[in-house]
Amino acid sequence: MESSGRRSRWLWWWCGAVISGAVIVSCGGGGNSLKAEEKLAVSRIAFGSCADQSAPQPIWNAIIKFDPQVFIWMGDNIYGDNKRPFRLFGKERTIGPWKNVPRFVPASHQEMEAKYNIIKTTPAYSRLRRNTKIIGTWDDHDYGLNDAGKEFGGKNSNQRLLLDFLDEPQDSPRRKQAGVYASYTLGPVGRQIKIILLDTRYHRDPLSSDGTILGSSQWTWLEKELKGPASAITLIGSSIQVISNLSAVTRPLFSMESWGRFPRERDRLFKLIAESKRDGVFFISGDVHYGEITRYDCAVGYPLYDITSSGLTQAVEKVVPPSLHFIVRFLAWLTPNTMRVLSRRCRHKSCTYGQPNFGAIEIDWDATPVALKFEVRDINGLPVMGVHIPLSELHAQSTNSVATVKVGEHQRHCSLEVSLPWIVKYRLAIFFFCTVAVLLLAWLGLNFAAILVFRACLRKCKLD
């Protein structure tokens, strides 16, 4: 049986005032008890991404134990598109320079709906829904196709499916607009949290274009949201990473989607935040199948953090045997980075986490000054990395943003990966190709040695 506290909190979320898009949505009922609940401040927010509906999902128990007031889906809420197997040869080749068919293909409307239903009826997730406000955006696999942007033809149909999954009201503005972006203002005056969820798919230009991510209509909306009434905290949710520019140092081996692939668009985002004079802004993101916290100090007058949680079921270490996890962690440590927050709180030296995880945000409103915790937590709910700061550090007028870090570290978070010397920037690729070359030479050497031994034995046999 639910406790009275959880029951009343649920009533507040169900009937409370929520800003969706630019329209305030509310429902009747509640009376004086509703007004009392509206005075409650939000102090715990959980978020996550990359949940394969066909995989086991024990992580929901850890999220329930964290007891968040809000849970935010950050995209890839299902893996809706269908994936062909890796094939280097044959009639349908999905990899290699002679690839002749795409590896990912869209699923039907019925298939997508069935996949959403699997997640929605998962018992542990159903328990979370009963006591927690669920909001969210999408990424490529629930949008309908891997790495897809505005060119994808099934986006309108799949938008309806996502909003049904999130229990969005039928009269919600999100059902009438082009894209699933939305904003929510939660908590009482003085302790308000504004949550802005971006749509990085519906209007996005091709990855190689350095065009737009958000599109003109969403940019207009975002400017209005950021220049609107002030809030103590502003959380901006992007399905892809905002701060990290990791693709600049992992090519040509692989590249990930991020705002760093659209440098002009990211500069525009930072400029808009700075011009809005808005304090307390930070980002959350998903997509990459590992957890990470990044930071950029030279954009808006105070540090901008990006807490990445990925994924709830999908993670890089799950695709390799446990005996090889050390290789994944070594490569993560070897990869050049300037934005990643390195801390003693990290479970692994790389300060990335390649097992299933979720993001946790805690706000201690009663502390002086107000305290923030940004954490990535494991499948048992234990922190694997975290940043604990006063909210005052996220104020442009504050000197804490400089005073709380060493000068060298402050400068480190101002140098983008693209500006690194080439021998540093491409050291992962250099290491990979050197390793391949050494292994190839070793293989050739072993074969040559085997041939010599064979000839020696043959000669000896003839003499005998």
Fold blueprint:
Layout: H1 4-15, E1 18-20, E2 23-25, H2 31-37, E3 44-48, H3 59-66, E4 70-73, E5 82-83, E6 104-105, H4 109-120, H5 123-131, E7 133-136, H6 140-143, H7 155-165, E8 182-186, E9 193-197, H8 215-226, E10 233-237, H9 247-250, H10 263-276, E11 281-285, E12 292-296, E13 304-308, H11 325-334, E14 358-364, E15 371-377, E16 383-390, H12 400-403, H13 407-412, H14 422-425, H15 427-463
Parallel strand pairs: 3-4, 4-7, 9-10, 10-11, 11-13
Antiparallel strand pairs: 1-2, 3-14, 5-6, 8-9, 12-13, 14-15, 15-16
Q: How would you classify the quaternary structure?
A: single chain
Shape: globular
Question: What is the count of helical runs?
Answer: 15
Radius of gyration over alpha carbons? 25 Å
The description of the largest β-sheet is:
6 strands, mixed
- What is the average of the pLDDT values? 88
Which range best describes the helical content: under 10%, 10-25%, 25-40%, 40-55%, 55-70% or over 70%? 25-40%
Assign the structural class, choosing from mainly alpha, mainly beta, alpha/beta, alpha+beta, or little secondary structure: alpha/beta
Question: Quick one: how many beta strands?
Answer: 16
How many angstroms does the end-to-end distance come to? 89 Å
